[in-house]
Amino acid sequence: MPASPSPPARPSPTCPSHPPGAHLRRRLGAFHLWGIAVGLVISGEYFGWSYGWATAGTLGFLVTTVMVALMYSALIFSYTELTTSIPRAGGPFAYVLAAYGPVPAFVAGFASIVELVFAPPAIALAIGAYLHVQYPHVSARVAAGGAYVTFMALNIAGVSIAAMFELVVTIAAIVELLVFMAVVAPGFSWANFAHDGWAGADTFSLHAIPGILAAVPFAIWFFLAIEGVAMTAEEARDPQRTIPMAYVAGIVTLMLLAFGVMVMAGGVGDWKVLANLNDPLPRAMLSVVGPRSGYVHMLVWLGLFGLVASFHGIIMGYSRQIYAMAREGYLPALLGRLHPRFGTPWAAILAGGIVGLGAVFGDRYATIGGQPLTASIVTMSVFGALTMYVLAMGSVLRLRRMQPGLHRPWRVPGYPVVPGFALVAALLSFLGMAASNPAAFVLYALVMGAGVGAYLLARRHKRHAAMEKDAGMD
Fold first, then answer.
1. How far is CA 184 from CA 200, 223, 306, 370, 453, in A?
2. I need a surface site. Which of 47, 256, 325, 386 has the fewest CB within 10 A?
3. If 0-12 CB within 10 Å is exposed, 13-18 middle and 19+ buried, where does residue 347 land?
4. pLDDT value of residue 198
5. Distance between CA atoms of residues 41 and 309, nearest Å
6. CA-to-CA separations, 237 to 3, 27, 55, 84, in angstroms, rounded
7. How buried is residue 88: exposed, middle or buried, by Cβ count under 10 Å (0-12/13-18/19+)?
8. Separation of first and last alpha carbons in the chain
9. Cβ contact 304:127 at 8 Å
10. pTM reported for the whole predicted model
11. What are the domain boundaries of the chain?
12. How far apart are CA 37 and CA 228, in angstroms?
């Protein structure tokens, strides 16, 4: 819902202008941004979500997914107001900085980094697993490490190349999902989907509610990181127009694919067989067309496109968040450097990749709460996202009061109900996850505490240094 034209607001003191020579290049149109928005998330349509069936059943998980889809719809409509009003690479960091000041901004930005840096290791290991199936002599971890090196290099090579690649693999992944739904449609039965669909029962009861709530992280996996397209705001052409188009088209695309894939896969046989698998789509297709069908081989190979699209897009997202915070002095200055030839944040790309590679190769040696390291850090990624969502939605409400004259090319419809709903839903999801995943929550709290503590110490040191300098001048 476009706002009536108003003059752009002057930069806020809490939202400093960019230093000279640290500008990203505007090369992305609406179609590229849509590809990034969908590509960031689309691996979630291929794997991870089916674990929600194990806790909630098919019908229970359908309820969970509807609730999470409503939260993300409200979130994206609200987030678009922030992105178009403050179109900066820092995304949530920049929004919370304008609304609440430096310390909450660091919390939001660091939580976003946790979300975007800790999601790729699991995707990289899934890529490695796909390649290991096709080439058994190739180690899954070595292939995952190769994926990191390849796509970090591609991101450093330039945003135009990276965005075009993201668009191509995203379209290929969407086509594959549509083919999957068409191929399994003849074998679909609602009776199969609904059988024992309420956490093992055919009828709803209060006993199904804990499973519905416990399945929230798996439903979030359908949409996690779509907000990452905001990180490319400084590389978008006419961001006040192109970003709303990309966000709205992106969330609609993902909702249609999520519900279509989930319902069709659950209705072609015994869904319990798929509930704890990392490759539910090929297994569902096998039950319809048999193991010798070329469609199954196509799904296995092209499934790689969905994983690659998300992996590549999230690298693009985390690097822009790290770069923006370093540019503003919230992280070491080295991380704010741009490549002299390509104009890309090479140091930020490498920094996030080093953390991810450590998780990939450390997965076999560490377990947390009985789960592999990568499983725990994926849960931490969701904690980071929910933390950032709460602060971002609070920023929508606060900026409306603090800066009513801020130029808002897009205004969230249904204000204040829509951002208020997204805020409450994200907060409740966070609390529910903390209760059901205590070990991962403690690890997340330790990581966040260490990050915030380091920032506060550095901030204090800078203040003391500035005071000593002023005293010396006197």
1. 24, 24, 19, 36, 52
2. 256
3. buried
4. 96
5. 8
6. 20, 6, 44, 12
7. buried
8. 55
9. yes
10. 0.85
11. 30-467
12. 7
Q: Which tokens belong to 173?
A: 């992944």
Copy the structure tokens of residue 29. 């149109």
Q: For residue range 190-236, what is the model confidence (pLDDT) as tens digits?
A: 999 999 999 989 999 999 998 998 888 889 989 988 887 877 777 78
- Residue 369 above 70 pLDDT? no
- Please provide the size of the chain in residues: 474
- CATH of segment(s) 30-467: 1.20.1740.10
pLDDT confidence tier of residue 473, bands split at 50, 70 and 90: low
Question: Which of 221, 281, 215 has its CA nearest to residue 53?
Answer: 215
